[in-house]
């Protein structure tokens, strides 16, 4: 879970800089954290970003990791991501 957090935080400035904006990231994070969204639904939602079966499987494992977490952990992760969205660094882009 810590590795996932580090990877997401490392890519945030790139996503904002690339012109996709933070809204796309917020939408994906929201779907990731939503326990009502199943693995197949999540894979369908991000299919435009997966170009191989291996990537699709990785996305499925990623979502399953979040489904295995407690509601408290999911809420804490959501709070952390909103803190990042509202940070000075994201607003620069």
Automatic annotation (TrEMBL):
GO terms for cellular component: extracellular space. InterPro entries: Secretoglobin, Secretoglobin_sf. Residues 1-18 form the signal peptide. It is found in: Secreted. The keyword Membrane does not apply. This is Secretoglobin family 2A member 2. The lineage of its organism: Eukaryota, Metazoa, Chordata, Craniata, Vertebrata. It comes from Macaca nemestrina. GO terms for biological process: androgen receptor signaling pathway.
């Amino acid at each position: 879970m810590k590795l996932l957090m580090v990877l997401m935080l490392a890519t945030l400035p790139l996503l904002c800089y690339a012109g996709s904006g933070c809204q796309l990231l917020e939408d994906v994070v929201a779907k990731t954290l939503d326990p009502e969204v199943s693995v197949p639904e999540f894979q369908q939602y991000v299919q435009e970003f997966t170009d191989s079966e291996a990537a699709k499987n990785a996305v499925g494992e990623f979502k399953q990791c979040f489904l295995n977490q407690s509601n408290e952990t999911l809420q804490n992760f959501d709070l952390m991501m909103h803190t990042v969205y509202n940070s000075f660094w994201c607003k620069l882009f």
